[in-house]
């Protein structure tokens, strides 16, 4: 067995795993009550009122949730601006292309955040743009984009703002209304620390109602999914029942930990400790401190020495942890996440393992 130092799926608690040992019928009133409770708690985490906002659960991974929002809200006479600085922003562009949306790309380098002023400039030059989408925590590099500034810029210019908060919601406080977010997308297996199986969308009700009839997909029709859940609490098509039960327990555990502020502190403390100890071994983070997020960190390969990531990965995995290879294309990097059931002692132990690897490989 080993722990996952990844941006999700991640290491979960025993109680979250145990929650999946119960079988549920999707038509059962108790199960529908669990779905309703989850939807209500998600809105509370986003600091929004049920009168103005709603939540929708959607089968599939986070990408399914993103595709659902993009293909359900951008109509045939509307246009999407995607502000991207990594693989997951570019994945939105891929979705838009496949779906035949009208779209435009504002692309920044992997180590630079999209600039709110630039977004405003693009919107003013392109009055046909109706929607803007951006990733909050871009796990390609670990960078944390300024969703608040971009959201305010989009709101001030009267457009709809879609935020991919896949790897941040539940681990970073996101006051949805204050940030001007119309649609927020995240996933069960990220900072709330559930398991894979569904994504969830938080939405302004008026923005969601405006999406009626726009969907390009049957199963990913966001408005139709919401309409069904509002009617009697049931998902339109077969739901991932065991994942839902695990998520309900994960939400309870988030509350017991002290909510998002406490979880954010644990993540940030672990992240800072990791970066400090890695620097001592000559491994620099790819992202500058000002924009480094607390979820996952990309590190450059060590300088002035022979280095094999695969050898280090295998060495670390045999000793209890799994890390990630790099995803940026212009630099040799690897990534280490610190979300999930991961604590300070895990960061200390991991860095000791890496130090041992570097010493042994030096003398090999």
From TrEMBL:
Subunit annotation: Homodimer.
The organism's taxonomic lineage, starting at the top: Bacteria, Bacillati, Bacillota, Clostridia, Peptostreptococcales
Record key words, sorted: Aminotransferase, Pyridoxal phosphate, Pyruvate, Transferase
Any one GO BP annotation for this protein: organic phosphonate catabolic process
Cell membrane in keyword set: no
Free-text function comment from the UniProt entry: Involved in phosphonate degradation.
PANTHER family: 2-AMINOETHYLPHOSPHONATE--PYRUVATE TRANSAMINASE
Enzyme Commission numbers on file: 2.6.1.37
Residues that, per the record, bind substrate: 335
A Gene Ontology molecular function term of the record: 2-aminoethylphosphonate-pyruvate transaminase activity
Family: Belongs to the class-V pyridoxal-phosphate-dependent aminotransferase family. PhnW subfamily.
Gene3D superfamilies in UniProt: Aspartate Aminotransferase, domain 1, Type I PLP-dependent aspartate aminotransferase-like (Major domain)
NCBIfam families: PhnW-AepZ, PRK13479.1, transamin_PhnW
Occurrences of domain Aminotransferase class V (ranges): 32-327
Gene: phnW
Catalytic activity: (2-aminoethyl)phosphonate + pyruvate = phosphonoacetaldehyde + L-alanine
InterPro entries: Aminotrans_V_dom, NH2EtPonate_pyrv_transaminase, PyrdxlP-dep_Trfase, PyrdxlP-dep_Trfase_major, PyrdxlP-dep_Trfase_small, SP_NH2Trfase/AEP_transaminase
Record's protein name: 2-aminoethylphosphonate--pyruvate transaminase
Organism: Hominibacterium faecale
Residue(s) carrying N6-(pyridoxal phosphate)lysine: 190
Pfam families assigned to the protein according to its UniProt record, in alphabetical order: Aminotran_5 (PF00266)
Cofactor(s) needed by this chain: pyridoxal 5'-phosphate
């Amino acid at each position: 067995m080993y722990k996952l130092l990844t941006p999700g799926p991640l290491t979960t608690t025993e109680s979250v795993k145990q929650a999946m040992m119960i079988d549920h019928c999707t038509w059962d009133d108790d199960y529908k009550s669990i779905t309703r409770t989850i939807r209500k708690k998600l809105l509370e985490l986003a600091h929004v009122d049920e009168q103005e906002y709603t939540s929708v659960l959607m089968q599939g991974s986070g990408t399914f949730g993103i595709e659902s929002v993009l293909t359900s809200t951008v109509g045939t006479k509307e246009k999407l601006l995607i502000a991207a600085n990594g693989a997951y922003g570019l994945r939105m562009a891929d979705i838009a292309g496949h779906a035949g949306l009208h779209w435009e790309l504002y692309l920044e380098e992997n180590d630079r955040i999209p600039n709110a002023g630039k977004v405003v400039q693009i919107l003013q030059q392109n009055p046909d743009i109706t929607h803007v989408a951006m990733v909050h925590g871009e796990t390609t590099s670990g960078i944390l984009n300024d969703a608040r500034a971009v959201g305010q810029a989009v709101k001030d210019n009267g457009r709809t703002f879609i935020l991919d908060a896949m790897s941040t919601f539940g681990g970073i406080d996101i006051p949805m209304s204050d940030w001007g977010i119309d649609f927020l997308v995240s996933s069960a297996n990220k900072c709330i620390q559930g398991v894979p199986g569904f994504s969830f969308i938080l939405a302004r009700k008026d923005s969601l109602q405006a999406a009626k009839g726009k969907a390009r997909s049957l199963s990913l029709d966001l408005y139709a999914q919401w309409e069904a859940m509002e009617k009697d609490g049931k998902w339109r098509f077969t739901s991932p029942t065991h994942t839902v039960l695990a998520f309900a327990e994960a939400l309870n555990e988030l509350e017991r930990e002290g909510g998002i502020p406490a979880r954010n502190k644990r993540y940030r403390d672990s992240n800072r400790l990791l970066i400090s100890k890695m620097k001592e071994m000559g491994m620099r983070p790819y992202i500058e401190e000002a924009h480094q997020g607390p979820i996952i960190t990309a590190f450059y390969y060590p300088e002035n020495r022979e280095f094999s990531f695969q050898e280090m990965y295998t060495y670390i995995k045999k000793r209890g942890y799994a890390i990630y290879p790099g995803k940026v294309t212009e630099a040799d990097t690897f990534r280490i996440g610190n979300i999930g059931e991961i604590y300070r002692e895990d960061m200390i132990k991991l860095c000791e393992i890496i130090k041992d690897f570097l010493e042994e490989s030096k003398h090999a």
